[in-house]
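[User] I have long wanted to understand how a fold can be written as tokens. Those tokens are not coordinates but codes from a learned vocabulary of shapes. Could you go through the record with me and say what the backbone is doing? Thank you; the sequence and its tokens follow:
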Amino acid sequence: MPIESYNPYTGRVLRRFRPFSWAKTERILGQAHRAAAAWAATSFAHRAGVLRRAGALLRERQHELARLMALEMGKPVADGRAEALKCAAGCDFYAAHAEEFLADEMVPTDAGRSFIGCQPLGVVLAVMPWNFPFWQVVRFAAPALMAGNVGLLKHASNVPQCALALEKIFHDAGLPPACFRALLIGSDLVEPLIADDRVRAVTLTGSEAAGAAVAAAAGRHIKKTVLELGGSDPFVVLADADLALAARTAAQARMLNAGQSCIAAKRFIVEKSVAKEFVRQLATHLLALRTGDPLDETTQYGPLARPDLADELARQVADSVAQGARLALAGGQDRPGTALFRPAILTNVRPGQRAYHEEFFGPVALVLEARDAADAVRLANDSRFGLGASVWTRDLARGEALARQLECGAVFVNSLVKSMPELPFGGVKKSGYGRELSRLGIREFVNQKSVWIGKAGAPAPGQAE
């Protein structure tokens, strides 16, 4: 795939970039590896100062960054500004808490003193997607840098200007240039990078296929990985839910980033007694959303990031209808080869249909009817994915009980699923492994080292193991 800025709203290529050669990529890797020791030796206070300045620059440049997102992948500017501000909050969070999260953990043993200490690994390679072109990167970079690692970013090929803009923010904030570099490379150079001993760990957010390829390469070379992959998040609506609030939030949750989010609600599992009314209200809310130029402040959802993505989504819908699903709201493309995809609702979703088994990465709501709460949990868990889920009920104790039964990395009761610095983010099953964000996220890319210090003048302990 070429490295170019393509505007999905106008269909025009804005800029093309010559991909880095392996020689240039390897030279940048060498610089990062040499810089890693010096950065690891800096204090938490020094790193925090850099991260806070990066957060300040994200706030100052929010309009510029939102414009880049609108141009490169179709995100409305209001949503782009919110993303930039979320990145700033993420930088501030780790600046404030990294030292506490990585503090020595004292452990009582037969030693005079023993503890678990955290040591940075070195160069971390990040392979990132286009759908949240700043937030996806910052949620890896902020904790990795605060832990004393350095980062190399292989961003999606359709958001090169976003990648370079974030690189410039970190450099302008005072981070030594070699400590964070955007690599304008194709996917063909990812495996050679993973194979290089100077790369110590890899994190990827992307498709199931991309995750499998990176994990296989990392496994061959014994590299730590964190994978955040696809999701087909269930949005469980019980009969006792506040139906008006659930339907309104369902439209918002499905249309987040024009539906192009791993944690966007995708499967709406509704108790049979309220399913018809839920679909009616959901359709009303979806039809009320405004589309248009992503640079227009009134636009609520833009096009998909590329026409081929819209074409594939249209095929998934058509195949599912041929397999027995029903269109309760038609939506879709105006014509093949265009990126705009209007909201759609599929009902009568059953096993054997693409709608039942696959992730629909765009504004298509898949509605499944459940006999009762137990059946809703069964349907929610009958998926190879396990990223996020939400449960809607007026009975909070019941909601918590059901949340504990759902096979996923996060459950939100009476709210849409979202990522935030305070809580760990990640999935199970084919949605990946490892965690980003929170205390858990910053500990993914450190050596959690056991240190045992004997008592002065005491004899050595007995036989090991």
